[in-house]
Structure formats: structure tokens, C-alpha cells
Amino acid sequence: MRKTIGVRLTAPLLAATLGPAALLLAPVASAAADPAVAAAPGMAVAPYEYLGWGNPQKPTDVMKATGVKWFTLAFILSDGGCNPKWDGSRPLTGGSDETAIKSIRAAGGDVVVSVGGWSGNKLGEKCSSAGALAGAYQKVIDAYKLKAFDIDIEDTEFSNATVRQRVVDALKIVKTKNPGIVTYITMGTTPTGPDATGKDLIKRGAAAGLANDGWVVMPFDFGGHSGTMGQASVGALEGLKAAVKSAYGYSDDAAYRHIGVSSMNGKTDEAGETVTTADFRTLLGYAQQHHLSRFTFWAVNRDRACGSGTDADACSGVSQSPYDFTKIIVQYQG
Predict the structure, then answer these.
(1) Closest CA to 325 of 230, 213, 231
(2) Which one of 28, 142, 232, 334 has the largest count of C-beta atoms within 10 Å of its C-beta?
(3) What is the pTM of this model?
(4) Which residues are catalytic?
(5) Using omega within 30 degrees of 0 as the cis cutoff, is the peptide bond preceding 158 cis?
(6) Any bridge partners for residue 184, and if so which?
(7) For residue 25, what are the CA distances in angstroms to 138, 197, 199?
(8) Pairwise CA distance, residues 122 & 120, whole Å
(9) Is 107 exposed, middle or buried (0-12, 13-18, 19+ CB in 10 A)?
């Protein structure tokens, strides 16, 4: 997903490289009829936690304090080739990440695993074909018997049209080989919805017949917006809904059920831009009204006030009690 201050800043979105017109203009009728997958209880609100930095809390402690059941654990990257590892270096099994997942499940919860983010080597670029990329994704799915999978597509992976197509095609293979798995594609946005690159990605998904469960935007680091961040986020989501509806031929209701939001709590990477608990409550009401596929945020690591010696990777930068933001999103039931 996004990169927080000093580690993974979400830069202004790069200009699109549009693919062939025929590819972009051909929504797939079969995809339009596909209903949103019924996610497991709590899956839609799985907040991100990054166990590699930011003085991460024990997930089980967060569960006890907030009632949250699911987490989105980030990030899986390339180890330099077409092989997935945590942060590109830690093994999928036998290490601290697997231990954390086992502890979450033992406490009655579960995980979404996120691939990508802003920094590091991306599997979408290092794997030379859709088949190879799907194989890398499958290693992660098999390692944890995942029910849900998130592709956080940013930076050079997002800006390259060939790579965007590769990610879409790989996810279609994953959906075929893992019936019932829930997939999310998470990307940046403008205050009026996805930019040309984001719209291209959605159109490629529709043209490929990818029945993606949630097209998710990160409504922050806008570079300027009007109104509150809650209002700006709703504007971004309305633009996303229109793009998904247009590409897939969905009804309004079906389009809403195939989109989601991944916000950022407190001060964002952009000076003067702050997402408040009131903004989260605005998003909660919007998600409840439209039955969004996902309402989450970056990150649990930051869901606490800053103390002496802490930085923006480990706290929100605003006055708050521990887990104020998590306690809002956990109210969402889908």
C-alpha cells in the first residue's frame, strides 16, 4: 500500500501509458453478471499492519483491545527474482511472520496478505510473464492457505502498462486455481477518482474477464483537495464507482459492492493533510450505505498518539487514544 513518512511515500500518480484501444473499450459481459463474493465476517475491515517496522503491536493485543478479527499483513516483495518474500528478505514460512499469522488464527482471526507497496522490488516487474507471476502469488497463498489476497500496486509497477496487464492476467489465473478466494487491487487516487492510469487498470481487468472482488483506492496524499478529507474521500470513491461501473457494465449497487477504501489515519505523508476520526466516521457511514467490499486503513502501527522519540511510522501525529481509528472501522459489517 502506501509508504509512510521516510519509508514509502506515495508520490503523485504517474501519467498513464494507455494500452490498445480495443483492449480498453471491451467490458466483459460475463464479468458484469458476477456478484460480489460474500467475504468472511470481518474480512472487509482488515486493517494493515506492517510487522517489519514501526514498532508493531502484537496483533493479538490489538484484537483484545478493539474486537478486530482480521489483519492485512504487508508486504510481500520480490527477493530480486520471481520469488516472494516478506520485505523481499524474510521467508514465507519458519519465521516471525508465520508465527504472527498462527497467533492471529489461534485467537479466532485471520489474515489478508498484501503484495507490493511503494518501495522495494515488485513481483509484477521481476516475474517475466503472467504465468510466472501467478506462480509467485500462489506460493504465498499456499504457504498460509489464504482466503483473501491484496495487490497494492504502486510506483513503477502501477505506471507500466505491460506490468499492469501482467498483474491482471496473473490474478485471473489465481482466481481460476483458487475458487472462492477474495482478491483486492489497491491503488492511489485523485479527489475525483482514479487517474488515467487507474482507469486503464480497471478497464484491463474488465477486458480480461477478471472478476475482482474489490477495486480499492487510497484517498490521501492528494496534492490539494476541497472540504474535509472525509468529503474528499467520498468524492474519490464516487469516481471509482463510476469507473468500475463503466468498465464492467455493473449496476450502481453492484459497482459499489466491488469497490473499497483504504484510508490513512492522522497526518498523512503530505504537509497539512490530516485524516481525523470524524473523517473515518464519514467513511463508515458511506461504506454502510453502499455496502463497500472493503473499509480499511494504513495502519495499525500508527493507531496511537506519538510519544517522545516516536516517528510517523509508529503513530498518527494527532491527539488520540490507542486504536481510536481501528475501533471505528471495526463497526463496519459489510
Answers:
(1) 230
(2) 232
(3) 0.90
(4) 154
(5) no
(6) 150, 214
(7) 30, 15, 11
(8) 6
(9) middle
